[in-house]
Amino acid sequence: MAEKQHRMTRQRQIILETVKGLKTHPTADEIFGLVRKRLPRISLGTVYRNLDILTEQGIIRKLDTAGQQKRFDGDVSPHYHVKCVKCGKIDDLYFELPQPSSEWSEKTSFQILEYNVELLGICPQCQKGPSHH
Amino acid sequence: MAEKQHRMTRQRQIILETVKGLKTHPTADEIFGLVRKRLPRISLGTVYRNLDILTEQGIIRKLDTAGQQKRFDGDVSPHYHVKCVKCGKIDDLYFELPQPSSEWSEKTSFQILEYNVELLGICPQCQKGPSHH
DNA sequence: CTCCTAATCAGGAATTATTCTTATTCGAGG
DNA sequence: CCTCGAATAAGAATAATTCCTGATTAGGAG
What we know:
2 copies of one chain form a homodimer.
Chain A: H1 10-20, H2 28-38, H3 44-56, E1 61-63, E2 71-73, E3 80-84, E4 90-93, H4 102-106, E5 111-122, H5 124-128
Parallel strand pairs in A: 3-5
Antiparallel strand pairs in A: 1-2, 3-4
The structure holds a DNA duplex (30 and 30 nucleotides).
């Protein structure tokens, strides 16, 4: 099972620091924008590659939310998310869900691994005015 | 609230029949492939447009599953889905999952509209061999 | 410290899914 | 039939992400 070696490059380090340093759930290009301030020559491809590597390593989380852009989360503790249907913003939800029950597996031929709950709603900001951005 | 008029064109009719006639959860291009057999000159854009219109009308369902391609479902009765993490195939689940509790909404400042439950698993086919597709 | 090499990088092209544009056609109410 | 807004085919455009290439570098071996 030869695992691939991973070097800690300056780029990867700064991308990691950036994601961990945010309480938001940034998209790849938002991270790109921030990292660029410290590493002006970094490329978007590098950001994507490192976000994927860090996700594989379980150091950050990739939010496979329905919709267009994927978002990333520096908080890998178990929690769920709400997404604003208007602006796409994501908020954390720290509640417990029951474990997948064996009863479920009996009713499907799939081997069930996990389940996610994604709540959809409207964020405080978009509740105020008719979204005019 | 002037609803937009919708004409029943031959294209829309056949797209609808196709989706309703399938027990699978086809992607837009799979539907395109099938509809094409009856309407060789139809364009992919027409398929997309009509799938969206039919979804708006609640006649079919668009599955906003995380991942790359969206899938459609001719069965609009309430049920959930499992997605195979290996091949992306989707299966229906006709059992009850934990209902959203008001407790959840209290923990966020978002106005909750709806919630999705997405189960992830491995389909029978992918359980067998080391996925060599 | 120096060498070596696989891992990584920057830059940009390629891919993929979906939406949009435009000129033309058509469904259905009058 | 006529009319007209809705719908169509074809293909361009967009957006997010992945892939490709030749140059660079981290970090272990010597």
